[in-house]
Amino acid sequence: MATRPARDLIGPVLTARAVTRSFGPTVVLAGVDLTVAAGETVALLGGSGSGKSTLLRVLAGLDDAAGGHWTLPGAAAVVFQEHRLLPWKRAADNVALGLAGPDVGGRVARALAEVGLADRGRAWPAELSGGQAQRVAVARALVREPDLLLLDEPFGALDALTRLRMQGLLRRLRAQHGFAALLVTHDVEEALLLADRVLLLDGGVIAEEIPVRLGPAPSPDDPAFGALRRRLLDRLGVPAA
Ligand SMILES: Nc1ncnc2c1ncn2[C@@H]1O[C@H](COP(=O)(O)OP(=O)(O)OP(=O)(O)O)[C@@H](O)[C@H]1O
């Protein structure tokens, strides 16, 4: 069994300080500070073009032109809006990609079972629905036993019903595995359904931090949910209907 250092650490799974990123003269990140505690889900909300994906890419180590400091002491895995499966590899081989150590086959099978695809391991990506392909992408992240999941609009390309199912799946997996998550979204409801805290990215900085205290099973019908939704929509400049 692989050792799991970070989940036993008393401390954050992500710390970022003064993160900056510009594209030519355009400053997208102007000094972002954020912290994600072990087991915590933080939603990163912001308008289109506010720099959410840029920040996630920087934190995931996919952009080496950024400034500032950030540390991820444990294992991290990324799920993007597109599943990014290799079309020439079967589902199970996509999940196994880059894995080493004992019993890779067993670990892959367990991860696929956890996302509800126990019998689809031999399928090619082209044979999977959009929701199934995204489940494989979640299994590929899960099998790495992450302390932190970095999620960039992971359900943004799915239909509304599939999206709800995937949100439920993420909550279940989180409860079972205890990973922390940084969830990039522009969907206010998704942020409130999943997150312990919402960070609002605006003007290249975290302009506001909103704790979400809606209990273990938040419902859009709850007046407290409605009040937070309105506050966030106001903040994003969406007028009341
Ligand atoms: N490779 C790049 N080259 C030039 N500009 C870029 C590049 N990547 C991002 N940008 C710019 O940085 C800004 C932030 O983009 P980013 O994709 O991070 O925003 P976002 O908040 O994720 O938006 P959305 O919600 O629409 O996905 C945008 O103005 C975008 O045009």
Order of helices and strands: HEEEHEEHHHEHEHEEH
How far do the termini sit from each other?
Answer: 53 Å
- What are the low-pLDDT stretches, counting only 5+ consecutive residues below 50? none
The CATH superfamily of the largest domain turns out to be P-loop containing nucleotide triphosphate hydrolases
Please give the domain count: 2
CATH class of the largest domain: Alpha Beta
Largest sheet, spatial ordering of strands: 5-6-7-3-8-9
Number of strands: 9
Look up the CATH topology of the largest domain.
Answer: Rossmann fold
Shape: globular
What's the main sheet like? 6 strands, mixed
Q: Which ligands does the model contain, each kind named once?
A: adenosine-5'-triphosphate
Query: Kindly state the mean pLDDT as a whole number?
Result: 91
Number of helices: 8
Q: Given the helix and strand composition, which structural class is it?
A: alpha/beta
- Strand fraction: 25-35%
Please describe the structure with a list of short key phrases separated by commas or semicolons.
241 residues, alpha/beta, Rossmann fold, six-stranded mixed sheet, three-stranded antiparallel sheet, 8 helices, 26% strand, binds adenosine-5'-triphosphate
